[in-house]
Amino acid sequence: MELQLTNANKDATVQVSDAAFGKDFNEGLIHQVVTAYLAGGRSGTRGHKNRAAVRGGGAKPWRQKGTGRARAGTIRSPLWRGGGKTFAATNQDWSQKVNKKMYRAAMRSIVSELARQERFVVVESFAVGSPKTKDLVIMLKDLGLDQALVVTEDPDENLYLAARNLYRVEVVDVEGLNPVNLVGAEKIVITVGALKKVEEWLA
Predict the structure, then answer these.
(1) Are 149 and 111 in contact (CB under 8 A)?
(2) Global model pTM greater than 0.90
(3) What are the tens digits of pLDDT across the range 67-96?
(4) What is the pLDDT of residue 8?
(5) I want to staple 106 with a disulfide (CB 3.0 to 4.6 A). Which of 23, 33, 80, 136 is the partner?
(6) CATH for 2-27+97-202, among 3.40.50.300, 3.40.1370.10, 3.40.630.30, 3.20.20.150?
(7) What are the C-alpha distances in Å from 184 to residues 43, 62, 110, 123, 127?
(8) Cα(115)–Cα(149) distance, rounded to whole angstroms?
(9) Where do the structural domains in the chain lie, given as residue ranges?
């Protein structure tokens, strides 16, 4: 498969492997992997204390009969101020198991569909000399874009800092690629070096 190289002569293309960029679209697998990825990002750290977990309350506050008051077994009853919660929420693990073969197959399916829809904008290099947002805006405007996922071969701090104020622009290296940011991107600006790294990873 060949991808058009942007900002070059019209015949300039980049050859990529069909094993990575020529797969069929597997909607069910992609949905499962995206759902699992989002679920894995949930913290699940909410937690309340039930009557057993609240400190104190070991002694019966008064005798069972003869006081004229209602029966009480502990001052940590959910009915009392300072007591435990009746249906206490507990910490939860929302993660779902996705093995490496499934994850890579889903990524192959995603990048193949992106290539078919011509949503890849392949460039020789993409870098800014200083961490200035206006420089990045000009570069994107030259490509006819105002929102994009920018994928570089290696982490680029200047590029990352320049994109922080652009809420529709995300900058990642190849290690930071995931099914969620790929699926959600309207266009993916990717360097040739990053494209080859992705091909090597998925082929």
Answers:
(1) no
(2) no
(3) 999 999 999 999 999 999 999 998 889 999
(4) 59
(5) 33
(6) 3.40.1370.10
(7) 22, 62, 11, 20, 23
(8) 14
(9) 2-27+97-202
